[in-house]
Batch of 3 targets.
Target 1
Amino acid sequence: MYRIRRAVEADVPFLSRWDGNALAHIQNPATELNVIELDGQPVGRLRLTRTAEALELNGIQLLPDVQNRGIGTAIITQLQSEAASTGVPLELEVAKDNPNARRLYDRLGFRLAGEDDHDFRLRWLSPAAARQNEIWNADTAQRYDTPGSGMFAAEVLRPTVDRLAELAGDGRALEFAIGTGRVAVPLAERGVPVSGIEFSTAMLEQLRTKTDLPVAVGDMSAVRVPGEFSLVYLVFNTISNLLTQEEQVACFRNAARHLSPGGRFVIELWVPELRRLPPGIPATVGTADPGYILLDTYDVLKQHVVSHHFHFGEGTRAELFRSPHRYIWPAELDLMAQLAGFTLESRHADWTGTPFTADSPSHVSVYQL
């Protein structure tokens, strides 16, 4: 059975067959240089770099007599599990003249992220991350912003930003799923220091055309941003993009990890419209406006709903955008909060403080740590 341990200066003679800078890498705190052992004997080298944006595999080498025994594949699988649990991609480079290694990485689910004259840059995403990047792709990111209308309308944004600025006080705010900065940018303009977490690289690229707010790339249920915050917020139903109860509970716990004592976690979420479902009919029409129809189809056993957004232009053609969700009842949301150490401070029907009732289609819930 192999094991991985951190390299020490005494390992330099062994490591020097692959790494002429082994001592410098051992002494560099930004790099993690490891020795791979088999039955207590050194048989390989593993070098990693960990950042808020990615887990990077800088090199893995094995002695010839232990190659093709599944050790390298097992190590990469272990790194994939670590990347998935921390919500960041696993990245590496492979030489273009090494087709065997490229085939291995392709088989393990890595995808091309870039290249230069000598190397392919490969990236592996967890299934959840890959799903989000597929939905929130470059085309979606380009069409997401609608300045002055829809969710970008002043009457929508102004009360949202007012309430969040009030809750942040003199502290820092962290937005889970910051997207293209719909809320974060005007909140920062109000003087609140804002950081973010975002899964979709395409949405983040769109955000970067507007601001240089600090953003960590990855899963909002796992990624850790440095420092403490007085406010973490998650708006516009986005917690429902996490498709399992386990992921949603992990999201609450990650919010708690970022908050100072007494800090608040704010969630904006719709109330499932199951009372509108006729017997035997699995869908509801949420909106039917000229040029736009929203149709939601429900799987009540899994608490899943798929939102079908139909946009009509001139003529007879329509564009369809679909997004999957796991819906959450307010009572279930409160239990998730309790599991993470929160108590419900307030719940209103909207950002202006309208009382929440049994007929409210959505809610803004404020939890305190």
Target 2
Amino acid sequence: MRIGELAERIGASTRSLRYYEEQGLLSPSRDSNGYRHYDEAALVRARNIKDLLDVGLTTDDVLRYVEQGCLERPLATSGRCTGELVTARERLESLDRRISRLQEVRDRLAQHSDALEASMAPTEARRTATSRTRRSRDGTSD
């Protein structure tokens, strides 16, 4: 099958499939005219790759599956890969660290914003009062 048919069958874009190939996850054969050709084994492999990426693994994570030879059978319905739990836990730990760092940045920014607001509040109050005084002298109102 050609790349468009494979993309349609697994619910991915042709661009995604070319990306999988660039990352060393998928290796289609080539027809004499240079077009990519995918067999049924490539269909299983591409579906597994898409499913693993969809749950949040990275292409580097999925490469471990390639190295273990785990993508040649449907992961959803067959036995799991031996390193799959380790890979998933490592990715979760990495995400938890990123979330923690982002929360720290958010907290610092919120504190900074609160401090700015507190320091600007008296200035804003004076500006508003001055503006009202000017308008009342000019005969304009709110």
Target 3
Amino acid sequence: MSGVLEQPAVHGRSTYGAVVLALAPAGAAPGPEDAARAGDDAPVPISPSGGALPPRHRTDAAELFARLHAEGVLTALVTAHPELPEGPPADIVVAADPPRRDAPEQGAPDRHPPAAALLLASRRLAVEPEHIVVVSDSDRLVRAAVAHGFGLVVGLDGAGRRGRLLAAGAHLVVNGLTDLDIPVAATAGDPGWGGGCGGEGGPWNLTYTRLDPPREGMRESLCTLGNGYLAVRGAACEFRADGTHYPGTYLAGVYNRLRTEPGSPVPEHEDLVNAPNWLLLQYRVQDGSWFEPTPETVLEHHQDLDLRTGVLTRSLRFRDAAGRTTRVTTRRFVSQDQRHLAGQETVLEAEDWTGTLTVRSLVDADVRNGNAADDSPLTGRHLGEPRLEDRGHGTALVEVATSQSGVRIAVAARTRVLRSGAGERLLSLTPVRPAPGMVGHELLLRMDPGRPVRVEKVVAVVTSQDRAISTPALAATTLLGRAGGVDELLSAHVVAWQALWSAFAVATDTGGQQGLAVNLNTFHVLQSVAAAHPDLDAGVPPRGLHGEGYRGHVFWDEMFVYPMLTLRRPEWTRALLAYRYRRLPEARAAARAAGHEGAMFPWRSGSDGREETPLALFNPRTGRWIPDHSRLQRHVGLAVAHSVWQYYQATGDTRYLIEQGAELVVEIARFFSSLAVHDPEDDRYVITGVMGPDEFHDGEPGSPGSGLRNNAYTNVMTAWLLTRAVEMVERLGRDYGGPLWRRLDLREDEVARWDRVRTRLRVPFLADGVLAQFEGYEELPEFAWEDYRARYGYIGRLDLILDAEGRSTNDYRLAKQADVLMLLYLFSAEELRELLGQMGYDFPPEAVRATVAFYCDRSSHGSTLSNVVHSWVEARRDRRRSWSFLTRALNSDLVDAQGDTVREGVHLGAMAGSVDILTRCYTGLEVRDDTLWLHPAIPPELPTVSFAISYRDQPIQIELTRSALRLYLAPGHAEPVRVNVDGQVHELTAGQLRQFPLAVPDA
């Protein structure tokens, strides 16, 4: 940035994703009175006279906004003029009230004071203040921006007012907007997002150029490597788990249950198990200490995750106490070709010394679960005493069993030195057990300048849950014995990744941070599910296989992941849905225990499908455990049924319905039908005692945990479910129904009840036609949003904030994520209108728009899924705002937007959902009524989007630009595909390219 940095920025490592420009209009340049009052309540010092921007800045501002827009940076203009010329250059405009010239009425609040104007801009941009640059010539606005933690605050018109602006706290002062060069990636000294940036491969490489211990946990999650069966965090190979590093290794579906000490608020818990750590590779020069990379000991550091190939490379140089300089380069991968195998190659080079280097290659079974901060009070020792063996020739074996579930895990590791003339480099190889639970080999290497040595480590991991094995130990050693070296394994691994990218890559031409985020999010979804197979009994953990957030349990987040898979690798969706089908007996038992029919799936599921939701939640603001009633979220069953039906619509796989899908739908329909109780007063059915996706309301005010009455999302989704269940019975009944319905003991009176209940469920509305979140919502008072944002900054977790104040989210009109808007995420407005119409409710287009606007202003976005939903529902109403929410969803993990949560694993639902917006939302892609529907609504920030899908086993390439939609069906002998583009039905035949011109407005 041009200009002089007068004092260090408070958030010196923030990512700047937005710029807010707040200037005095013509004829109203700030005067002495602007600096006279320091209070945050003072009105914005701009006058109603003059233009929207003063002439001295109007042209410069337009040029600045145009450049920022091209770079993908969001912009806002704070002005006293709601009436602006056509085509304002900013993404959003905040109309600030001018100062009062007369005395305000006693007790009348000032409207849009400086803090409120800036925070309102932050909210409408959907960017947190710490990631926003504020540029202003107003002393008060500068002071307010600094007080409320905006990332960089720039004073303007510094020629005559530099001292005053600096006194107000400006980090930087410039003479004019032409002097402004916004550091889009980050501030000087820290190029990139969250400390990282796109490397030479641009949107295909996540690169870190220096060590940053406070962010190491986040980087480890984002640099995790996996294949859906096995995953390992991107931890430095030199460290065991400590306060900074956490080298976790996770295996899909491997859980263990532990009990804690008596009196604990969480007496029993089940976790995805942290398995033995195979990464350990330690080294020391001559007789020095074992080297540990830190910012103080490293001369250079460069880490690169290549998303195209799934390879993590790290290169560092260090100088020891004796002045000797050494370079160490490590490549790591988890095989996408052979799911049990992984490899790590380390190249060590002496730059200016001759002597010996000692290397220890180890497997560490002395590990515990300790990645999730909220679970730190709980017991984390899941593994029993390990069996450690040296198998000779540089091979070590570890076998250990989980303490309760009895899953045996075997890790076989082979270490060898590779180079021309390796024999003279390797002086000795000795088995070692340097600490309890650790086994491996110590290598003594002869080092000379310019003669690098390659140390290769290949591992095989097998568990007793795997099929077609004798024992895990025997299988692991056999696989390792047959495995080639790193080069051979890596070659096959890269080819496998190329095949995945050919199916899943989404090209957008956006470049920069958004381009990297699209690829990174796709990459991590694939790493979490790519091993999906009928023989692998695993679901979709919301934090992937990247950490221990939520203890690795399976939630409803799978609902956001399946669309990305179903339209590309539908067999993965079917295999993952089998996780739910296998747990139907447990869900049936849970329903019976609760006095209901059918199957009641748990909110959080682990190994056997019982309810794993804890009864208490730790509040770090108070250090106390508080009651957790999340298990009242019965809607998880509705998500399962929706995923089943969407899979069927995309594939036409009737065999799946007969074997598994119909049984899931029927049992879930039975449960929700039994939840619905008839109210004779208005001949409606009501559902009580549940929670919606919002999570901030678990009962009426003063009655936490009692559940809600007629939650709109639950009731409308129940109507949809029962409608689909009736349709499915009719479809299958014609050809397959007899044996299937006898197996399920399906009765005609059941189907008749479903048909009646689906049209008579009660749905609450507000007086203006807005869908009410639940009955009684209209009686709740409004929440003081601006006050809490000013006091707390990030307010995503209002439940914890209000609990610390002795209050409750049940008492206000607010939401963690607006569950009413979930209905418009899952259904088009037309489909939702039709569904409500069948229930006897009118929901005209203006009510749809009013509902979206109402809940957009009342959400804390405390869930990363909230940004996905809001981006989706705004796509038809406000495309620029939709893009703003999408940008936030895309970047949420890349910049750790929720504040130090990514270290516990990525947010898989938001990752998949953000990519899904590009492919399904902006193209209007739906699969229903045996038709492929497309209704494009591309935002102006998106030049093009291109991707492939598999619809009814037919590959279709889709390309959307501002002016045209192109569909290409690969050559073959398949039947034509029925497509509906903007209400017009067409046929797409094999080998055909069809182009549909579009007239898409800019907003």
